[in-house]
Amino acid sequence: QGQLKESGGESVQAGGSLRLSCELSGYTANLMGWFRQAPGLEREGVAAVESAGDTSYADSVKGRFTVTRDNAKNTLSLQMNSLKPEDTATYYCAARLDVWGGDPLKTGGYNYWGQGTQVTVSS
User: Fold this and answer.
1) What would the DSSP string read from start to end of 56-90?
2) Distance (Å, rounded) from C-alpha 39 to C-alpha 48?
3) 26 band by pLDDT with thresholds 50, 70 and 90
4) Which label site among 50, 58, 65, 102 has the fewest CB atoms less than 10 Å from its CB?
């Protein structure tokens, strides 16, 4: 059974940076992504990357966040710069094993989810 494990969530001040990491075990994913969910809101796509390297970003994080993956190490990372209070959320790593032609920032495209890591940005 595949597993996803996130790490790196912390409390930081606005303008700061964080790097989230996700380790996959048990399988190789075609599509991997980061999602976030703030209290009372729906889970939303933040960034995604396909095995070939194509990336997608939510408009709200473009230019600030960078998603990367290391296929050899089976890891996914999210570098978050210029953090804002509205970035506060629980961040989830997600994976899809097969090829999918849908929107990579939609939750429905993913089969496996991590437990989440909390990011809190204070003003």
Assistant:
1) EE-TTTTTTEEEEEETTTTEEEEEE-S--GGG-EE
2) 22
3) confident
4) 102
